[in-house]
Design brief:
The chain contains 2 helices and 5 strands; from the N terminus they run ββββαβα. The chain is mainly beta. It has one domain: Beta Barrel (OB fold (Dihydrolipoamide Acetyltransferase, E2P)). A 5-stranded mixed beta barrel has the order 1-2-3-5-4. The radius of gyration is 15 Å and the shape is elongated.
């Protein structure tokens, strides 16, 4: 599981059949409180939009979020994050 911010949408004129009706969103992942890489994720919540802070599931588990037919995705938005705090290791040792 990892986190990211939705920064855009993808428009596809042709998609795999089981992706019909599923939004594809551009997400900038966050690692250690900093932007990491940009990926495309299928929106399992069907409610995410630009600017939303989300958590994602990757690999074959992402495909399992879509309970209908097999949906070939590498990443899926599983939910929203209200707040994200980064605690440094120095703070946790005190």
């Amino acid at each position: 599981m990892y986190t990211g911010t939705v920064i855009g949408t993808v428009v596809a004129t042709k998609k795999y059949e089981s992706l019909s009706g599923i939004k594809l969103l551009v997400v900038e992942t966050i690692e250690n409180g900093k932007p990491a890489k940009v990926i495309v994720a299928a929106d399992a919540t069907r409610q995410a939009g630009i600017g939303d802070f989300v958590y994602l599931i990757g690999s074959k588990e992402a495909a399992l979020l879509f309970r209908q037919k097999y949906t070939p995705v590498d990443a899926a938005i599983a939910g929203f994050i209200d707040r994200y705090d980064v605690i440094s290791t120095k703070e946790t040792q005190q």
